[in-house]
Amino acid sequence: MEHLLGQDWEITPAGGETGEAFFAQNNGQKLFLKRNSSPFLAVLSAEGIVPKLVWTKRFANGDVYTAQQWLIGREFSHSDMTDERVAMLLKKIHTSKPLLEMLKRLGKTSLLPSMILAVINAELDEELLNNDIIVDSIHFLEANLQYIDNENHVVCHCDVNHNNWLLSEDNQLYLIDWDGAMIADPAIDLGMLLHWYIPQENWEDWLIQYGFELTDDLLLRMKWYVIAQTLISIQWYKKKNRFKEMEKWVQFLKEMDLK
């Protein structure tokens, strides 16, 4: 990594699943480096959704490195997610034409509910398919698939976990880690956020801040996507032998109304 910045820089891994991210610092200057990040990052930076992009460098072997501001700040906690700025930033993302056009230029097409269901049926292993709550969840997805139809597809982050919300020391909120971004029904993001972090009695007020009305159609779409994403997460955690997290999401399904 020293060939990027020179021998005077201290470069350390930033963690994460891919091992493609690094912290770099030298005489008070701090950068967040990432290998082979998407060109989408430039638009996210221009829109003020992620920390500022400082430079991009392409090397002869085809690798592309980006450097962003390494901000002093903190991740949001579970309780922070009720902050109205979360609703405002998510609305900004979902209504951004530059973000949508860039994903389209990068070859992204709409993620349809039928595609998600096909992935679930293809990837869940035999042991999980013998679990009654998993079976009931799949039946719910299949029975309601015909009703999960929304043509207003937008840029969705698809992992609005509180750990991906960064509040800088100057009180600027960012949403980071965009590797899983898709063009899809905004109910994907809304469902995860509301089901995980917002008491149900506050959903209507939260959605007013965001700019939506709480309708039966939206409720069903959010529920459908939350169940689908939970099933995918259960299989992912099982493959990683992270059984405590897997059981947490199995329990989450048990608490859902699957009728």
TrEMBL record:
Keywords, comma-separated and alphabetical: Transferase
Annotated ranges, domain Aminoglycoside phosphotransferase: 15-215
Keyword Amino-acid biosynthesis: no
GO MF entries: transferase activity
Gene3D superfamilies listed in its UniProt record: 3.90.1200.10
Source superkingdom: Bacteria
Keyword Transferase annotated: yes
PANTHER family tied to this protein: CELL CYCLE REGULATOR CCRZ, PHOSPHOTRANSFERASE YTMP-RELATED
Name recorded for this polypeptide: Phosphotransferase
Source organism per UniProt: Niallia nealsonii
